[in-house]
Amino acid sequence: MGSRPVFKNNGTESICVIYFVRRDWRGLAELAGVTGESMSYLEMKGNPLQELLKMLPTVSNSRLKTVKDLKAFLAIIDRYDVVDDGESLLGMTARLFSSLYWRKLVRI
Known about the structure:
By secondary structure, this protein is of the alpha+beta class. Helix content is 57%, strand content 13%. The chain has a two-stranded antiparallel ribbon.
């Protein structure tokens, strides 16, 4: 997978920094704020994306905290295919959770 330019605004409207981010788990990790040792750890794993998603809740400076953040970062790295696949899975999960939640409430 190639790299894609990302435009980063430094807080003013006149200065923009352009850098390239990978279109795989590395790009997602970089956008989330994972660096150094953690990246090396992930590179050694058989499924680095799965390990990344498991580790993010424990990363104190992570910029990826919600599903909305994940969708935004996947869009930045141009992985709309993952967003589309994930939305159907999240929809099914939400419906299942809602169904189980309401069944539990009715039993009370």
